[in-house]
Design a protein that fits this description.
- The chain is of the alpha/beta class.
- The protein has a domain of 165 residues: Rossmann fold, CATH 3.40.50.
- Helices cover 29% and strands 27% of the residues.
- It has seven helices and nine strands.
- Strands 1, 2, 3, 4, 5, 6, 7, 8 and 9 form a nine-stranded mixed sheet that branches.
- α2 packs parallel to α4.
- The longest helix has 22 residues.
- The chain starts with 12 loop residues before the first strand and ends in a 13-residue tail after the last helix.
- The relative contact order is 0.18.
């Protein structure tokens, strides 16, 4: 048995989520040698490699299968977006069960079947990892009200996914990062010794990296609670320079990859 110590460089799996128009796709496109698997059509204004529009689940299967089976130049596969893909999975599950919608399956079984499909997708992502390819799963955000027994209710920002699928992806991904703008508060005098706090958004974009009562996030890199929203800032915690592609997302293979046609 061989025993090794220290950190081991490997492809990362990142769930990157945020509000509409926050710059998720733009940030993901700065990862090394990216390919956008175009489910949503939100990358048209970016100079980046992309697949044809993914219109159904079989298109997605074909794209992942091609990327696993063929040599190509891509080091990062970006699913844009995973919540739009979830809708395609729901449609696939409904049709496979002879229903018009996933709700028609009854007893909540449709969502269980959809989670099983995502389990197969995760196997495909792991196959990409085995080839030295990282994945970035882009997702929109939602605000969910939580009401703990005996406590005050509160709102929490989460990836906009069904609970079962969200749980699978939170477990699978190495990092779950919430993209937002830095905020600060200022006081406004209301008179009569009263004041209120007003939240103001800064122009600076940041990534929330750690779970809090108000935001779902995680990392396996001992990051601070927030970092600048750049690939270089993220890569620095993997122990490499922002431009050092091989140290982040490849398995050390020196085999030349040919230009791709996806």
């Amino acid at each position: 048995m061989k025993v090794t110590t220290g950190k081991k460089a490997r492809p990362r799996n990142v769930l990157l989520y945020g509000e509409h128009g926050s710059g998720k796709t733009t940030l993901a496109a700065t990862f090394p040698k990216p390919l956008i698997v175009d489910v949503e059509g939100g990358s048209d204004d970016l100079d980046v490699a992309r697949t044809d529009r993914i219109k159904d689940y079989s298109d997605l299967q074909g794209a992942i299968s091609w990327l696993v089976s063929n040599q190509h130049e891509f080091s990062t596969v970006i699913i844009d977006s995973i919540d739009w893909l979830e809708a395609l999975v729901w449609k696939h599950v409904a049709e496979a069960n002879g229903e018009k919608s996933i709700e028609g399956i009854g007893y909540g079984k449709g969502y269980k079947f959809a989670a099983e499909v995502f389990g197969h997708l995760i196997s495909g992502f792991r196959a990409l990892n085995a080839k030295g390819i990282a994945t970035v799963l882009i997702c929109h955000a939602k605000s969910v009200k939580h009401s703990p027994p005996g406590g005050d209710s509160y709102d929490r920002i989460e990836p906009d996914l069904h609970d079962k699928v969200q749980s699978l992806l939170l477990e699978f991904c190495d990092e779950v990062l919430f993209l937002t703008r830095k905020t600060f508060t200022r006081s406004e005098d209301l008179g009569f010794n009263r004041e209120r706090k007003i939240a103001i958004s800064d122009a600076e974009r940041i990534l929330i990296t750690s779970d809090t009562a108000s935001v779902v996030a995680k990392n396996r890199l001992s990051m601070p609670a927030e970092i600048p929203a750049t690939f270089a800032a993220y890569a620095s915690f993997i122990g490499v320079r922002g431009g050092d592609i091989e140290g982040i997302v490849t398995n050390g293979s020196s085999k030349k990859r040919e230009p791709a046609s996806v």
